Backbone:
């Protein structure tokens, strides 16, 4: 790290400072009040408005790298669906979504859910569907073509819930938990766009209702689709997941909170970044005005 | 019916996983201080495991798509043999004489994805975006509220978006020189794009902080039964890193065989 | 003749496949046999994509084996990579041998190893970006121009608005962050989305017409 001292402070000390300051709220929570944003409120209200028995597709399109953001989002939404009696078809278009999705479903539906009575009628986990966007389009056109068995090897024809899911037109809500490609844009391009207007129960726009839980990096890029009502609600990273959990705690005594306790540490991290930017620029301005090299 | 699982795993495996997780995390983070043999070892291990995991899921996906299940090979639908045979042609990539056979499955995939891209992009990313920009409310009411009521008024937001989209698009227009009206438009567009990149920067910082916070949560809160907490091992891992780092510094200068890609003279003779 | 087999037939296949997809989407009604045939076609393509992943593993093993045999750079670590591959493959093949449908991942041990061992490494490597962001914020983010200032101010407002601390400092930060996301950011991103769509469509058309041939690989 020969260049680590370039701008005055060795960057390794910045790393240590970040490590220590971000650790403090985890060990000693600050309990900062959480404001529920419009995007996560819409996800909650849209899901809450679905009648019991509605079919929800829950797509685990994330990997271990973004598990901190996506896992709480997916878990909270699945819990919400379970409380409302919604029927869930869980899929994954990322290979990592297979085991991670199984782990989330185990948390919500219980250990050994795949052997329970409700499996096949209330919840189905199809597992990883290969092909990325090609797989998504195939699933939207005909899920029975996309996969012959579920994640555990049971034939599709043996799952009663799948008898009612023959295309995207049968889906009442699609929950996309994503951190990249394939993700929400591919759902919009290759599923939603192809099946516009096929279900009279869908909104006036004719689009299949889509809510997205995403890593915060992707959210700014989603806003054109949100504004065009192709996406109806967004959980924005860890904060969005925490806001959704808070709504579930208020309405359904949700006990599996994972994102909410981490928001204090996120606050500290954000403030620290702003402080670093400020200190860096102040130092640069001083060195520049003093006739120095300037960084 | 659902096939039986392999059997219950011994619960001690959770303890070993937590121990490995702490050491792997600290060893990888030690790279931030200085690259060292431990961080390098964990990274190489990660690469190997990632490759096998990907292979396993790909293999299982092929089985569950083509072989097992409803209307698949196992039920006598032999049409699913065609993609399996075609997919084997990928392995001609490693030959010189028959390399061209590798191009056949690649062409199929490329053609289908190009066709899909045309259909998907035109509708969702092009037509709908232009339609929704043109349909932004400028007069009247939306959901019973006038578009010029409240703060900020929806009509003002609509104007900002319309102007923002047009000027930002004009920034990418390189057919004519950016002077005159186009020059003004691109200047405004540049500021709109800077606001976009600022929002992207904020999102990026949020996301990266979240990843790090997730790892901190594991380090401080992972436990096994009531007697083992993962953070007990943090000082042990740090000491290991320091020892290995010091050992690397005090050992002899790197030999040619460690850093060179060429065989040594002794090996050549 | 050989050029026909090696180059022109693959290009023709690309065109036919792509044209079929476009025709199927725009001219074939859903629930017709022809449309269902096109769905079957995309389903078979899923399997082709799968095998491409195997090439990656083969290439990885080849690279590290050569590195070990030639005693190349960090050859000792290549041993670790291959040992990891072999170890995880053994677990996977155990699953294949004991599973009714010959699956690999259904082995509990395989799934456990992924979700309790591998996940830590993947998540940690990715999480190092937080430190690099912090370092870059201090060392590289400079207010050299008006544009950079706009970027910084919007970024800072987003950071304050999207974390609970912002509302504690001033209740207006979340509202401002929401507005920035919904209005100026949406405008800029819409322009970028339209631009990307135009670029992607033109690239896809060029690929179908055989003008872009990079996907065919090197001429051998």
Residues:
């Amino acid at each position: 790290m020969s260049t680590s001292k370039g701008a005055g402070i060795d960057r390794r000390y910045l790393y240590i400072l970040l490590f220590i300051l971000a650790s403090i709220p985890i060990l000693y929570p600050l309990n900062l009040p959480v404001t529920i944003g419009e995007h996560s409120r819409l996800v909650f209200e849209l899901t809450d408005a679905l009648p019991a028995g509605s079919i929800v597709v829950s797509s685990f399109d994330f990997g271990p790298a973004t598990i901190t953001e996506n896992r709480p989002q997916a878990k909270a939404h699945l819990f919400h669906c379970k409380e409302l009696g919604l029927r869930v078809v869980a899929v994954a278009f990322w290979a990592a979504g297979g085991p991670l999705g199984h782990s989330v479903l185990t948390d919500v539906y219980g250990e050994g859910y795949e052997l329970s009575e409700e499996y096949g009628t209330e919840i189905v986990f199809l597992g990883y569907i290969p092909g990325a966007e090609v797989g998504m389009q195939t699933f939207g056109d005909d899920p029975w073509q996309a996969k012959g068995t579920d994640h555990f090897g049971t034939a599709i024809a043996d799952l009663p819930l799948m008898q009612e899911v023959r295309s995207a037109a049968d889906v009442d809500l699609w929950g996309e938990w994503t951190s990249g490609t394939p993700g929400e844009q591919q759902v919009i391009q290759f599923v939603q766009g192809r099946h516009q207007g096929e279900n009279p129960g869908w909104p006036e726009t004719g689009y299949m209702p889509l809510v997205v839980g995403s890593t915060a990096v992707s959210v700014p890029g989603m806003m054109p689709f949100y504004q065009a009502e192709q996406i109806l609600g967004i959980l924005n990273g860890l904060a969005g997941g925490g806001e959704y959990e808070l709504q579930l705690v208020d309405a359904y005594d949700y006990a599996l909170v994972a994102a909410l306790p981490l928001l204090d540490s996120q606050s500290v991290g954000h403030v620290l970044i702003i402080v670093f930017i400020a200190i860096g620029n102040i130092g640069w301005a001083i060195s520049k005005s003093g006739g120095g090299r300037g960084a | 019916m659902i096939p039986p699982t392999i059997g219950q795993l011994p619960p001690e495996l959770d303890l070993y996983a937590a121990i490995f997780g702490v050491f792997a995390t600290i060893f990888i983070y030690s790279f931030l201080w200085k690259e060292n043999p431990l961080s390098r070892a964990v990274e190489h291990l990660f690469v190997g495991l990632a490759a096998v995991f990907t292979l396993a899921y790909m293999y299982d996906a092929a089985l569950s798509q083509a072989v097992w299940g409803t209307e698949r090979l196992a039920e006598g639908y032999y049409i699913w043999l065609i993609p399996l045979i075609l997919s084997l042609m990928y392995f001609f990539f490693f030959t010189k004489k028959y390399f061209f056979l590798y191009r056949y499955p690649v062409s199929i995939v490329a053609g289908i994805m190009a066709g899909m891209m045309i259909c998907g992009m035109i509708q969702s990313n092009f037509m709908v975006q232009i339609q929704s920009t043109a349909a932004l409310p400028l007069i009247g009411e939306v959901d019973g509220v006038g578009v010029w009521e409240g703060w900020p008024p929806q009509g003002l937001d609509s104007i900002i978006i319309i102007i923002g989209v047009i000027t930002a698009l004009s920034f990418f227009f390189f057919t004519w020189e950016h002077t005159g009206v186009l020059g003004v438009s691109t200047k405004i567009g540049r500021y709109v794009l800077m606001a976009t990149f600022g929002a992207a920067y904020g999102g990026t910082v949020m996301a990266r902080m979240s990843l790090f916070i997730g790892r901190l949560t594991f380090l401080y809160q992972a436990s096994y039964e009531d007697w083992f907490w993962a953070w007990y091992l943090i000082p042990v891992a740090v000491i290991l890193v320091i020892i290995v780092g010091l050992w690397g510094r005090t050992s002899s200068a790197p030999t040619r065989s460690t850093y060179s890609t060429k065989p040594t003279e002794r090996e050549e003779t | 003749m050989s050029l026909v087999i090696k180059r022109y037939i693959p290009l023709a296949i690309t065109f036919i496949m792509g044209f079929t997809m476009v025709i199927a989407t725009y001219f074939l009604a859903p629930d017709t046999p022809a449309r269902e045939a096109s769905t079957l076609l995309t389903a078979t393509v899923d399997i082709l994509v799968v095998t491409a992943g195997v090439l990656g593993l083969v290439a990885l093993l080849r690279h590290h084996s050569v590195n070990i045999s030639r005693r190349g750079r960090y050859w000792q670590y290549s041993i670790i990579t291959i040992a990891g591959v072999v170890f995880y493959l053994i677990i996977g093949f155990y699953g294949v041998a004991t599973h009714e449908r010959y699956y690999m991942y259904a082995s509990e041990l395989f799934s456990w190893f992924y979700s309790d061992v591998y996940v830590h490494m993947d998540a940690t490597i990715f999480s190092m970006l937080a430190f690099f962001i912090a370092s870059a914020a201090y060392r590289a983010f400079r207010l050299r121009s008006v544009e950079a200032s706009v970027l910084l101010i919007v970024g800072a407002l987003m950071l304050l608005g999207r974390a609970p601390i912002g509302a504690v400092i001033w209740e207006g930060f979340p509202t401002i962050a929401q507005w920035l996301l919904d209005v100026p950011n949406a405008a800029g991103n819409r322009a970028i989305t339209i631009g990307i769509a135009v670029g992607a469509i033109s690239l896809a058309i060029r690929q179908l017409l055989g003008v872009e041939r990079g996907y065919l690989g090197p001429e051998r």
Summary: Chain A has one domain: 38-261. The radius of gyration of chain A is 22 Å. Residues 38-261 of chain A form a domain with the Rossmann fold fold (CATH 3.40.50). The longest strand of chain A covers residues 55-61.
